[in-house]
Amino acid sequence: MMSDSALWASLPIPAIMVDKQDCIQDINGVAEVFLNASAKSIKGTPVWDRIAIDAPLEQAFARARKQNSSLFVNDADVGTGNAPPMQCNLQIAPIQGSDGDMLFLFEPQELASRVSISESVKNAAKSAIGMAEMLAHEIKNPLAGITGAAQLLSMNLKPEDLELTDLIVEESRRIVKLLEQVEQFGNLQPPAHTAVNIHDVLDRARRSALLGFGAHMTIKEEYDPSLPFALGDSDQLLQVILNLLNNASEAAGKSGTIRLRSYFEHSFRLRRNDGSGQSLPLQIEVIDDGPGLPQDIKGDIFDPFVSGRENGTGLGLALVSKIISDHGGWISVDSVPGKTMFRISLPRAPKNLIPAKET
Predict the structure, then answer these.
(1) 269-302 pLDDT, tens per residue?
(2) Cβ pair 91, 72 in contact under 8 A
(3) Number of C-beta neighbours around residue 340 at 10 A
(4) In terms of C-beta density within 10 A (0-12 exposed, 13-18 middle, 19 or more buried), how is residue 3 classed?
C-alpha cells in the first residue's frame, strides 16, 4: 500500500497544507516549482504572504474551516510574487483527523487552455496553407508581370517619375515575400527525432543574433549545465529560438537585455485532449525587458496574422507554435510591462538516441 509521503509526492498539481494559524505546514514537489521555493524554506510562513488570490475568500474560507467543509473557487487569478498571476481552479478542504488544518489544491488552467489553443493554431494554419496553395500561383504570375512591366517603363522615365515605378516593384516584391512566408507552413517537414543539445542550439542562435539583428542587444545566458538532451530537430529548434530572439530585440529596442534561460522541471507533464500524456521536463525561456505585449492580442499571439508590430505579418509566432507543437512540446507566454517571457517545454531524448560518447 502506498504511504502517505509517497501519495503526497505523487500529486500532479500544487498542494499546500496550512495549519489553524494559516501558516504553511508543508508543500509538495509541484508546489515548490509553483511557489519557486523549497518546502524547508517556506514552512511556518503565513500562506497569505506567499499566495495572493483575486477573489473574496476570507469569509468563505473561515466558514469552510468552521464547518469542516470544502471550498471550490473556479477561474481565480493566483499570484505568487515570482511571476504574473495564473488563472487556477482552487480547492480548499479540511484535513481529516486534524483541528483546523486545511489543504489547498491549485489546478492551473493555462496548460489545458494552451492545448486547446495549440489545436486551434494548427487548424488555422491549415486553413492558411490551403488558401496560400490555392492562390499563390495565380497571384505570383501577375505580380511577376507587373514587376517586369514597371522595370521596362522605368527605362524611359525621367528621374523624377522613377519613384512610382520603384514603388510598384517594391510593393510587388513585398507581396511575393508575404506569400512565401505563408507557404512556409506547408513546406515545413516533420521534425527529425534526434538527440539535441539545447545549449548548442541556444549558442548558435545567440551568436547569429549578435552578428545581425541583435547587435545592439545584451544577451545573457542562464543555463543549467546538467540539462539532458532534448528530442527534436536542431535546425527547426534553431529557427524557433532565432524567431523569438528577433521578436525580443525588436520589442526591447536599443540597449535592451535578453535573457536565455534553461532548466529542468521534472514534474512538468502535459495531458492532451485525447487523454494521452507526455513528460516535458526541458524548459527554455527567452525573456526581454521591453514594453510587453498589447493587451488586446495576448490571448491570440500564436494565431496566424496576429501581430503586435506595425507592418508585422503575424506569421513568425504562428510558425514557432507549429514547430513546437510538431515536436510534441508546449509554448506559452507571460507578458507585463518590462518583462515578456516565452517559455518552451520539450521532451527528453531516450537513451538509445544519445551519442555513445555522451551517455
Answers:
(1) 776 555 556 788 999 999 999 888 877 666 667 7
(2) yes
(3) 24
(4) exposed
